[in-house]
């Protein structure tokens, strides 16, 4: 069986052989807000190789 990342689990509905041939659709995550939590989530998704898009309504970056 292919190596799984820490973000994936084996699907109980498939046998090991079926799991090898089944290609799960890649999720796309929309992150609303580029604050600390939104940017941290973007980092985690990047590490998990999950596509994402960050939306922020502010036009300028503000410091804390």
UniProtKB/TrEMBL annotation:
Region described as Disordered: spans on this chain: 1-24
One Pfam family from the record: NAD_binding_8
Name of the molecule in the record: Uncharacterized protein
Organism: Podila minutissima
Top-level taxonomy: Eukaryota, Fungi, Fungi incertae sedis, Mucoromycota, Mortierellomycotina
């Amino acid at each position: 069986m292919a190596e799984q990342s820490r973000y994936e689990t084996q699907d109980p509905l498939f046998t090991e052989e079926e799991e090898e041939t089944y290609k799960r659709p890649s999720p796309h995550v929309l992150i609303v807000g580029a604050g600390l939590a939104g940017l941290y989530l973007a980092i985690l998704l990047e590490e998990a190789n999950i596509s994402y898009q960050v939306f922020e309504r502010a036009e300028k970056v503000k410091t804390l």
